[in-house]
Amino acid sequence: MNKRITAITAGLLAVTALAQSPKDKGYATIDRATAEAHIGFLASDELEGREAGYKSGRIAGNYVLAQLKSLGIQPWNGSSYEQPFEAYRIERQKKGSYQVHPDSIAKLKEGVHQKLNLRNIIGMIPGKKSDEYVIIGAHYDHIGMDPLLDGDRIYNGADDNASGVAAVLQIARAFMASGIQPERNVLFALWDGEEKGLLGSEHFMLNWDDPTKIKGYLNFDMIGRNNNEANPEHVVYFYTAAYPEFEKWLRGDIKERGLALKPDYRAWDRPIGGGDNGSFAKRDVPVIWYHTDGHKDYHMPGDHADKINYPKTVDITRAAYLNLWNLANNFGE
Ligand SMILES: [Zn+2]
Predict the structure, then answer these.
(1) What gap in Å lies between CA 243 and CA 263, rounded to an integer?
(2) How many Å apart are CA 219 and CA 221, to the nearest integer?
(3) Measuring CA to CA, which residue among 189, 229, 190, 219 is closest to residue 312?
(4) C-beta separation of 218 from 280 below 8 A
(5) Distance from Cα 60 to the centre of ligand 1, integer Å
(6) CA–CA separation, 162 vs 140, rounded Å?
(7) Ligand 1 ion: Cβ-proximal residues, 5 Å cutoff
(8) What's the CA gap between 128 and 136, in Å, rounded?
(9) What is the H or E stretch that residue 188 is in?
(10) For labelling, which of 5, 79, 138, 258 has a CA lying 20 to 30 Å from the CA of 232?
């Protein structure tokens, strides 16, 4: 073989290797059509706003469970994708919040109370290190319907948080498509009862034996809208300040992959505000949280699927896939 052909062959091999790296294979599966399909279904009027404890919320849970199963993701505890739990509060005239802590539940049961049957949906890709975990999560519940509203009565929750659920499901598919076993166990968690007080993620952590086994938690809550139409690439990237590499990863990936994102980097000592990230941050699990900020349809009936900025939500999903890849494979070794 002459020198020139050897060089061409080497070049082709390098290009082929780049195109077919496991990480890139997974990356290539993340697309707009899938985001539209998941968000379109979950935020349709037929889903009636996915309120936790109601039939509409159960249907949303069945949908995400079916998706994880069809991707070949394993049940998180070996036999089931479901983590059922109960939440209690005092009868409605006292206006108390729902509780999942066993002590609070025992107290509430002494009086007249309400009870919700809820469930988290969780899948797992087992890693090589059986005792180390990374978790990516989003809540799938929303705030339901109000039959007394004059006009549109359904709080569809496309941004809040069908957008986040779509990202988790796309990243689950991407990890499977990569074809390799990650170093750490990766849990894909769709939380119930977030809108009623972070109930699902709090229940999960109350029953988790050792938070130090969780090497990182990546949260999505509302990743699909524009806070300011003049800055459509805006996304807030909250992360635990003790891990400055999280910001470096995102900066590098945006550059390398040409992602159309302009992150507002916000390092917090403990990112406990806003959503399910709080259940992890307060137990000192390192957190990354993507959020595209408030807008006029937040917790309103107008949070519709056709108002989603799909190119942005897809690029956030891609960026988060790369973050999770690092967390699962080569962070903190
Ligand atoms: Zn939310």
Answers:
(1) 17
(2) 7
(3) 229
(4) no
(5) 15
(6) 7
(7) 160-161, 221
(8) 18
(9) strand 184-191
(10) 138
Q: Residue 88 has what pLDDT?
A: 97
Residue owning tokens 């074809």 = 179
In angstroms, what is the span from residue 162 Cα to ligand 1's centroid? Answer: 9
Dmax over Cα atoms in the chain, in whole Å?
A: 87
Helix, strand or coil for residue 307? helix
- Give 154's DSSP letter: B
Question: Considering the entire predicted model, what is its pTM?
Answer: 0.93
Q: For residue 54, give both structure tokens.
A: 């109601």
Q: What pLDDT does 14 receive?
A: 55
Indicate the residue type of 32.
R
Distance between CA atoms of 243 and 96, rounded to whole angstroms?
A: 37
Residues of the chain with pLDDT under 70: 1-19, 333
Q: How far apart are CA 23 and CA 28, in angstroms?
A: 9
Rg over CA atoms, the chain = 21
Location of structure tokens 């705030």: 143
Token digits for 2? 């002459």
264, 237 in Cβ contact below 8 A? Answer: yes
215, 184 contact by CB (below 8 A): yes
Residue 66: closest CA among 92, 42, 48, 91: 42
295 alpha carbon to ligand 1 midpoint, in Å? 13
| Residues 286-324 as b or e (16 or more Cβ within 10 Å = b) | bbbbbbbbebebeeebebbbebbbbebbbbbbbbbbbbb
Yes or no: say if 223 and 235 are a contact pair by the CB < 8 Å rule: yes
Backbone angles phi, psi at 138, to 5 degrees: -155, 145
The alpha carbon of 222 and the centre of ligand 1 are apart by a number of angstroms equal to 6
Q: 150 CB contacts (<8 Å, ≥6 apart)?
A: none
Looking at residue 271, its pLDDT comes to 84
Residue among 280, 260, 279 at smallest CA distance from 327 = 280
Peptide bond just before 161 cis, omega within 30 deg? yes
Q: How far is the CA of 180 from the centre of ligand 1 (A)?
A: 32
